[in-house]
Specification:
Helix content is 58%, strand content 2%. It has 185 residues and is mainly alpha-helical. The protein has a single domain, classed as Orthogonal Bundle (Hypothetical protein af1432). A two-stranded antiparallel ribbon has the order 1-2.
């Protein structure tokens, strides 16, 4: 199995260097953390939240979440573009950013347990290093850093804002399965 089978959305990225960088980020992160690409679909989404909400590891998976974020982000971007001919949104940045926004969760958690990276940095901060090592541009690093309220960095680009909102909705979908009122999660 290759990374494009895990994340078929990679193939929709038109820019060769972005496509390669996204693939490299995931395959490198998996390898460094002792995972085979085939094991990625079994990695839990967010262990601490899953424990808090009593969501089993296999009920909320990282790959599924990342793919949901990519789908939501593309839908948002395409909807905006279809309604405004003057709007400039780089779909490749949206797709690539969505696909790597949580790549560093592989460093933040080992199974359901938080690692030192998770304790001291957290995935948005460490994600900048991961995408930089994969030779992805600073615009993608910004998407990764600003996608979460766990940092004080706000999205500076529309592409980053789109990914942040898509991530919020995809995460709410997972929380909604555990609570009746999302304000409780």
């Amino acid at each position: 199995m290759d990374i494009e089978e895990v994340f078929p959305e990679i193939e929709t990225i038109a820019d060769d260097s972005l496509r390669t960088g996204v693939s490299t980020a995931w395959t490198t992160a998996a390898g460094i953390n002792g995972l085979e690409v085939e094991e990625l679909p079994e990695v839990p989404w967010l262990p601490a939240t899953q424990r808090e909400l009593d969501i089993e590891a296999e009920e909320a998976l990282l790959v599924d979440h990342v793919r949901d974020v990519a789908s939501c982000a593309v839908g948002l971007a395409e909807s905006l573009l279809s309604r405004d001919d003057d709007l400039e949104v780089d779909l490749d940045t949206v797709i690539a950013g969505a696909l790597v926004h949580d790549v560093s969760k592989l460093y933040e958690f080992d199974g359901m347990e938080r690692t030192e990276v998770g304790e001291l940095l957290g995935h948005p901060y460490y994600g900048v290093a991961v995408v930089s090592r994969a030779n992805l541009p600073v615009e993608i690093a910004h998407v990764v850093l600003s996608h979460s309220s766990r940092t004080t960095v706000e999205p500076a680009t529309l592409e980053a804002e789109i990914v942040r909102r898509a991530d919020e909705v995809a995460a709410a979908k997972l929380r909604a399965g555990a609570v009746d009122d999302l304000r409780e999660a």
